[in-house]
Amino acid sequence: MPLTPLVNWAQRHEDIYLRVELTDAQIIDVHVQENVLLFRAQGNGAKGQNEYEFSLEFLSPVKPEVKYKSTQRQSDAEMEIREKEEKKNKLKAVRHKEEGFVSLKTGYLFLYNLVQFLGFSWIFVNMTVRLFIFGEESLYDTFNSISDVMFFCQILASVEVLNAAFGVVKTGVVPTLIQVVGRNFILFIIFGSLEEMHHQPVVFFVFYLWSGIEIFRYPFYMLGCCNTEWENLTWLRYTIWIPLYPLGVLAEAVAVIQSIPIFNESKLFSIPLPKAIGTSINFSYVLYVYLVLMAMGLFINSRHLYKQRKKRFRTKKRKSN
Ligand SMILES: CCCCCCCCCCCCC[C@@H](O)CC(=O)SCCNC(=O)CCNC(=O)[C@H](O)C(C)(C)COP(=O)(O)OP(=O)(O)OC[C@H]1O[C@@H](n2cnc3c(N)ncnc32)[C@H](O)[C@@H]1OP(=O)(O)O
After folding, report:
1. Ligand 1 in reach of 169 Cβ (< 6 A)
2. pLDDT score recorded for residue 206
3. Do 221 and 270 have their domain in common?
4. Which residue's alpha carbon is at the smallest distance from atom 13 of ligand 1?
5. Is 219 in the pocket of ligand 1 (CB under 6 A)?
6. 178 within ligand 1 shell (Cβ under 6 A)
7. Which residue numbers delimit the CS domain (predicted)?
8. Ligand 1 in reach of 260 Cβ (< 6 A)
9. Mean pLDDT for each 10-residue chunk of the chain (321 residues)?
10. Residues 29 and 114 in one domain
């Protein structure tokens, strides 16, 4: 004749724990049918070695997932419950920390993108307005009127290399490094160090092409920080580089070529050689090498941007299907 064992009940959130007081329990059968739990086992209970069973009807339906463990002593089961609770609490604390980090990162990225957006918008609008007001004349005065803000934005853009390197954003370090180093070389070495370049119209084209993409790229990132997307903006961010990038590299190459005779004449940045060999290595040789690097940079980054474009529009298509 089956007997009823002593059963202890505990409930934590959505989990129910039952402790059945049987020692040396064998042939244990526990399962749930609809909202009834059925237990049957042989073991040593309150009435000695016997077959024990019970059924427990729940008020509401329960998931039919039953896990059981035969333990040595009563305290083992209690420790198990406590350990589970501690694990859950630890998990909660980790999740809390992660959420805090994510919101800090998002806030930082949003602010960074906002500052860059404002800077490049100022450059783009200012140049457009000046072009309308002063016409061709404005092409010769771009450096003096715009360079301060461009210096600020491009120095700040170096942060993007760190963002990529430390995994703050999911992007490759190499394309970002090529982009930032490439632009800063033109801005600081070619334009910044040669006064003769300040009044060249090429400055206008370089600055206009650079800001032409950034007024779309940074607001696209800002929306991304808010988990939002505007289809037209996404399309512009991943499409407008197709004409702008080669044109940008072309304008930069023109600037480098224009600067070569100036460097040759001024001997600026020329590398002195030991007296035995005589003379010095002119900086123009570095610029010839740089022109080759530019072609490589154009290839690497166009391929990268093409991949990013394909990835973006492929995932979008899949999402809409
Ligand atoms: C190693 C030594 C170097 C030596 C140099 C030698 C020569 C170099 C020659 C270089 C020639 C440069 C020419 C250039 O100056 C000409 C021009 O720029 S012309 C104007 C047109 N230019 C462009 O279109 C390029 C604009 N720039 C870029 O697109 C980026 O800088 C680039 C690194 C090229 C690509 O960007 P990225 O890899 O980041 O791609 P995604 O935008 O798709 O972003 C990937 C994911 O990361 C998230 N992300 C990225 N940045 C941010 C951010 N600031 N805030 C928030 N989120 C960000 C983005 O949302 C993507 O995430 P998800 O995929 O989840 O959406």
Report:
1. yes
2. 98
3. yes
4. 249
5. no
6. yes
7. 2-95
8. no
9. 87 84 88 91 88 91 86 68 87 87 91 98 98 96 97 98 96 97 98 97 98 98 95 97 98 98 94 80 95 98 97 74 56
10. no
Question: Shortest CA distance to 173 belongs to which of 162, 163, 160, 164?
Answer: 164
Stated pTM of the model: 0.76
Instruction: Check 52, 112, 252, 290 and give the catalytic one.
Output: 252
pLDDT tens-digit readout, 209-235: 999 999 999 999 999 999 999 999 999
Active site residue 68: no
Enclosing domain of residue 43: 1-66
Clarify whether 245 is annotated catalytic. yes
77 falls within a domain: no
Considering the domain boundaries, does residue 80 fall inside one? no
Question: Dihedral angle at the C-alpha atoms of 167, 170, 175, 179, nearest 10 degrees?
Answer: -80
Distance 172 CA to ligand 1 centre (A): 9
Q: What is the spatial distance between Cα 158 and Cα 51, in angstroms, rounded to a whole number?
A: 75
Catalytic residue among 52, 238, 245, 290: 245
Query: Both 49 and 147 in a single domain?
Result: no
Q: Is the ipTM of this complex over 0.95?
A: yes
Q: In 3-state terms, the chain is what percent helix, strand and coil (to 5)?
A: 65, 15, 20
CB 154: neighbour CB atoms within 10 A? 19
Residue 71 domain-assigned (yes or no): no
Asked whether residue 14 falls in the same domain as residue 136, the answer is: no
49 and 150 part of one domain: no
- Do 178 and 32 share a structural domain? no
